[in-house]
């Protein structure tokens, strides 16, 4: 369903989509790094508790709202006439990566709950590797749109 009334707002929708995506990505880059450092603490210590506060605030106050805004503005762009060429490979590549990024977001949330309950099951190395996932997806998303 295309909504012609959105056409005059295209540039605003695009700007807010990019701003939201940038905020989402900033959090997605930082949260796994916090998990790397959190692994270096002893559960129950003041330092571990401080990481728990940092992680929950980053997720709830920045990453979650930014992801929601990214999706809202992205959907509005999809509904804008002429914004998406449904036959172009870039659109499907970007959409696939955004779905994967959303899934990774869910994994970050699950891992945060594990830390919150002092039941982390992963190593520092695991989070170092996981920290690269948003970077790879970010590069693919940006290159698919501008190429």
Q: In DSSP terms, counting alpha (H) and pi (I) runs of 4 or more, how many helices?
A: 5
For the biggest sheet, the summary is: none
Low-confidence stretches: none
The helix-strand sequence is HHHHH
Description:
The chain has helices at 10-38, 46-78, 89-116, 124-130, 133-146. By secondary structure, it is mainly α. The longest helix is centred in the middle third of the chain and has 33 residues, at 46-78.
Summary keywords:
147 residues, mainly alpha
Topology:
Blueprint: H1 10-38, H2 46-78, H3 89-116, H4 124-130, H5 133-146
In short:
The chain is mainly alpha-helical. It has helices at 10-38, 46-78, 89-116, 124-130, 133-146.
């Amino acid at each position: 369903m295309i909504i012609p009334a959105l056409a005059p707002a295209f540039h605003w929708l695009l700007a807010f989509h990019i701003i939201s995506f940038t905020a989402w990505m900033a959090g997605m880059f930082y949260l796994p790094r916090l998990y790397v450092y959190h692994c270096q603490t002893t559960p129950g210590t003041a330092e571990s508790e401080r990481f728990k506060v940092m992680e929950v605030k980053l997720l709830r106050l920045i990453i979650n709202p930014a992801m929601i805004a990214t999706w809202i503005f992205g959907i509005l762009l999809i509904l804008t006439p002429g914004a998406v060429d449904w036959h172009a490979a870039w659109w499907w590549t970007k959409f696939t990566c955004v779905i994967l990024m959303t899934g990774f977001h869910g994994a970050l949330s699950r891992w945060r709950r594990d830390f919150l309950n002092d039941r982390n099951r992963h190593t520092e190395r695991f989070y170092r590797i996981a920290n690269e996932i948003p970077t790879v997806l970010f590069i693919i998303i940006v290159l698919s749109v501008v190429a």
